[in-house]
Amino acid sequence: MYTIHVKRLAASALLLAVVASCKISKDITYSQETLPPQYRSADTISSLTDSSNNRLLAALPWNDFFVDPALKTLITDAVAKNNQLQLALKNLEIARLQWTKAKWGNVPEVQLGVQASSNSPSENSMLGANLNQALQRSHIEEYALNVGLSWEADIWGKIKNQKRVAETNYLQTDAARKAVQTALIAEVAQGYYNLLMLDYQLNTAKKNAALTLQTRKLIEWQFQSGQVSALAIAQAEAQQLNAEKLIPLFEQQITVQENALSILAGSFPNAIQRSVGLAVPSTKENLSTGLPSALVANRPDVKQAELALTHANAEVGIAKADFYPALRIGASAGVNSFELSNWFTLPASLFGTVTGGITQPILQGKRIKTNYEVALVDREKAVISFRESVLVAVNEVSNALVSIEKLHSQQDVLERRAQQLEQAISKADLLFQSGMATYLEVVIAQGQLLESELELATNKRDQLSARVSLYRALGGGWQ
């Protein structure tokens, strides 16, 4: 009769679940922002924005995107040894274990228990007196061995949403790990390109210092012959010192940059190998930025924001399920005896129990309602964060595209300017030696050439950095 009663109780609970489930939304949808059809400045680089290209730039593995062997080695070391990335991997491992645990939410809990007790009541108590009179004993012993089982029916989808929360936590952690790796690779590449720029600028400063030294010697020879004044020697020396002061400055910056790259690669400060000089590679063929809609799938931070929204939806479902009754069923069985010698005497020592209950929260001090309202607000915050991440991503891609185009245009101007100044210096030297130009014209031309070549090196570095920024903005670097 007891078993029949429990079955009826469970059936009534399931019927109640079916009726009430019509009032609970199984899933919560949200409106997505309409993304623009293309990036602003998409007409700047047709080779990158042509939709007819087959392969997305973001889908290109980083070891294919970067062509410098030394840079590849540096990035490989950073991915393997960087401490921040290693911490992200540990967080991912924890999230995976939590997700694995959550998958067992629908599985009944089973517990094994072994108990032994001995009670010696007072001889002057009623229990002690009865014990001595009936059993001629001064103490009571009891031994039990039981297996217990408990299970909660997932009527309202609470356990299902708990699994979804654990899953989204894992996927968010994985997206965070990818975002750390993407940022790390971009930082290493940009630091390496900055190192190449400093190498170029150091060589430029040394060449200009040697050039001004020759000019100074020529002016000193003319001074000795009375053709120029001491002012000419002073200005030539000042121009030479202006170039020479840059040499230790660039050497210092090179060491600092090498140390920073060493730390990113997970090693102590050391020299960094370079394979090639400062040069801007051409864009690979059959590559495309794709459409803005691809950012949701490619960019780890945008994906993480989208998963946060799914997580918030599941939290709302969990909070809403707390308003409704919970059905819990339990059972236990084992052996029990007052005598150790009879503990495993079967079937006399066997026992079994079955329980079932429905718990309906009634008055919880607004705890359940407040938790539900907070979950709704958190979901709205997740929607706002997702929209913001998409806006930032589209903006970064557009900025990188226009930077690549405009920096390339600046490079054309700077190269022509440097060429003109090189020719001007050659002509100025000949004219100065023949007495048709003043020393001041030579000194000014040398100073302008130094400035122009330093600016050209900065422009090339910025172009390389802009390409890395575009690659990262599109979501590349974690493959």
From TrEMBL:
- Specify the superkingdom: Bacteria
* InterPro entries documented for this protein: MdtP/NodT-like, OMP_efflux
* GO terms for cellular component: plasma membrane
One family name in Pfam for this protein: OEP
Q: Which GO terms describe its molecular function?
A: efflux transmembrane transporter activity
Note the topology in the membrane. Lipid-anchor
Q: Where in the cell is it found?
A: Cell membrane
Keywords (A to Z) from UniProt: Coiled coil, Lipoprotein, Membrane, Palmitate, Signal, Transmembrane, Transmembrane beta strand
Q: Which residues form a coiled coil?
A: 404-467
The positions making up the signal sequence are 1-22
What PANTHER family is this protein classified in?
OUTER MEMBRANE CATION EFFLUX PROTEIN, OUTER MEMBRANE PROTEIN-RELATED
Q: Which family does it belong to?
A: Belongs to the outer membrane factor (OMF) (TC 1.B.17) family.
Protein's recorded name: Efflux transporter, outer membrane factor (OMF) lipoprotein, NodT family
